[in-house]
Amino acid sequence: MTSRSLVPEEEEVALVGADTENQHDDAHVVATQDPELIQHWAQLRGAEPATGEATPSGPATVDVHDGDAGIRFNFPGAARYRPIEWPEWFDHFRHHELVFVYERDEPEQPPSARYRLLKMESLKKRATVLA
Length: 131
Known about the structure:
With about 130 residues, this protein is α/β, with parallel strands linked by helices. It has one domain (about 10-130). About 20% of the residues lie in helices and about 25% in strands. It has helices at about 35-45, 85-95, 120-125, and strands at about 10-15, 30, 50, 70-75, 80-85, 100-105, 115-120, 130. The strands form two sheets. A five-stranded mixed β-sheet has the order 7-6-2-1-8, sandwiched between helices. Strands 4-3-5 form a three-stranded antiparallel β-sheet. The protein is globular and about 40 Å long.
């Protein structure tokens, strides 16, 4: 795994959906707000929707300082956050105007689990967002 930032300053990040993910083939990092694509990404990695914050479905479990994203994924063998259902995860995602930024998988390499949840406004400040 590389130690460089997933969203380096002033780089291009393609905003994709399930129907356009295969465009921008040269982009190593892409972003989406498409629920289908996010769930597919999580499913391929065995990741489950989770949170560390108190929500109507349960209490806070972890003190998270993440710029207010609040939602996470639990990965197999690393489930430190409280599991939540997809509808609650996406309600929070939409309410906070988040975008899911992830590293594309490399051929013949294990799937990358690198991702960030950012406010769309924050992504636009950091990178050139390609539609």
